[in-house]
Specification:
This protein is mainly alpha-helical. The chain folds into 2 domains: 199 residues, Growth Hormone, Chain: A (Up-down Bundle); 199 residues, Growth Hormone, Chain: A (Up-down Bundle), CATH 1.20.1250. It has 15 helices and no strands.
């Protein structure tokens, strides 16, 4: 065997690893844009004092936009070249970020945030792209690699935004994201291959087929509502945290709120363990445990309105619970109809981010009136909704 022949498999492996790393970076950089605004809420309140009571709408509409983008844009990956879709969405998001950075009023920022949310669904093109590029024997590892990038983007976005805002102002956060996306676009043009469409269905029929999946699979409906309630609990905490830390007794800026994202890395560490446990015992048990953990985290939060240590402990419990439930729910839905995994995933993720938008919206209403205790009670309420939905169904849909 010649040297060139012997090196071919190793070269192919290195090439695939490089592509997966690129896709993981795409997913992380893209999804981070829907979380940058959460540690900036106190800065926004100060910048727009006449609209201060509406600053909570910024993270709410961003997540609502992401849900809309999931529904309207993510299914296109089955119909068109994903590489082109990713580049087009990057171009659109750069424009939306420039508008956010220069927003003269909170209303303009809200509109820009909605557009950012819609276009950040680039992340949902990266995951199925990884499954297409990898051989069947390595597909799970490939998807897991890209999901790790997405998770890190979620966790570190607040940290990065808090740091930049602390030293350069909140508008610089959106400007820095534009620079990162433009650099990423150049790498995509140079390195990422084109994808092969797998469907010839017209756009309208692609969307209609997702409704048929909802009607057909009760387990998909249950997993979607459970996931939505869990993410609502997650979002109500993160959308209000910066406001809590800005007041007495903490008087901390956005950098401190962002640093809590590093604490959330516990969720990333729990994800592989949750997957292994789900494989051995089935996802139902670990989702049940996850719901209990989320409820406990908000009890800890309620007792920690003046304690950084208590908040840190609560964040760890919250992120472990939410991420473990997410992995287990995805394990359930991907087994329902393998030939329609992209559309099944779209149904689930649309519900998931609608839940996030509801959580942020409830936080914006509850915080001014009922304060931190009200936020904590609402978080327990969302966990209770997840428990009612998850545990109240017949065993035949528990898989």
């Amino acid at each position: 065997m010649s040297t060139s022949e012997a090196s071919t498999p190793a070269s192919a492996d290195r090439s695939l690893r490089g592509l997966l790393l690129l896709l993981a970076t795409i997913a992380g950089v893209a999804v981070a844009n829907i979380y940058y605004n959460q540690p900036l809420l106190d800065n926004l309140r100060l910048s727009f004092p006449n609209s201060a009571s509406w600053v909570g709408a910024v993270p709410a509409v961003t997540q609502l936009g992401y849900a809309a983008g999931m529904l309207l844009l993510a299914p296109l990956g089955d119909r068109f070249d994903r590489r082109r879709l990713i580049l087009l969405q990057i171009a659109g998001m750069c424009l939306a970020l420039v508008l956010a950075s220069a927003a003269p009023t909170l209303s303009v920022l809200i509109v820009a945030s909605l557009a950012i949310g819609v276009l950040a669904t680039i992340a949902q093109q990266a995951v199925p792209f990884a499954a297409e590029l990898a051989p069947a024997s390595e597909r799970g590892h490939a998807v897991g690699t890209v999901m790790s990038g997405l998770l890190l983007g979620i966790l570190l976005a607040r940290t990065a935004a808090g740091f930049v805002a602390e030293y350069f102002g909140w508008r610089a956060v959106f400007g820095a994201s534009v620079v990162a996306l433009l650099v990423l676009a150049v790498v995509i043009i140079m390195r990422l291959p084109k994808s092969k469409p797998t469907s010839t269905l017209p756009y309208g029929k692609l969307l209609v087929s997702m409704w048929h999946l909802v009607v057909e699979h009760r387990a998909l409906r249950e997993a979607s509502l459970t996931g939505a309630a869990m993410f609502a609990a997650f979002s109500i905490f993160w959308s209000v945290l910066a406001l809590l830390l800005a007041g007495a007794p903490f008087h901390l800026g956005p950098q401190a709120a962002g640093l809590f994202g590093i604490v959330g890395a516990a969720g990333a560490m729990a994800a592989p363990l949750a997957g292994k446990f789900s494989d051995r015992r089935g996802p139902h048990a670990i989702i049940t445990v996850s719901i209990v953990l989320v409820a406990i985290s908000f009890v800890v939060f309620a007792l920690s309105a003046k304690s950084i240590a208590g908040l840190v402990i609560g964040v760890i419990i919250l992120d472990v619970g939410v991420q473990a439930a997410q992995i287990s729910n995805q394990s359930r839905i991907y087994a329902l109809k393998p030939e329609a995994r992209s559309r099944v995933n779209t149904v689930y993720m649309v519900a998931y981010f609608i839940g996030g938008a509801v959580g942020s919206g409830v936080g914006a209403v509850v915080w001014p009136t009922f304060g931190w205790i009200g936020v904590s009670v609402a978080g327990v309420g969302f966990a209770g909704l997840a428990a009612w939905n998850h545990l109240g169904l017949p065993a035949r849909v528990r898989s």
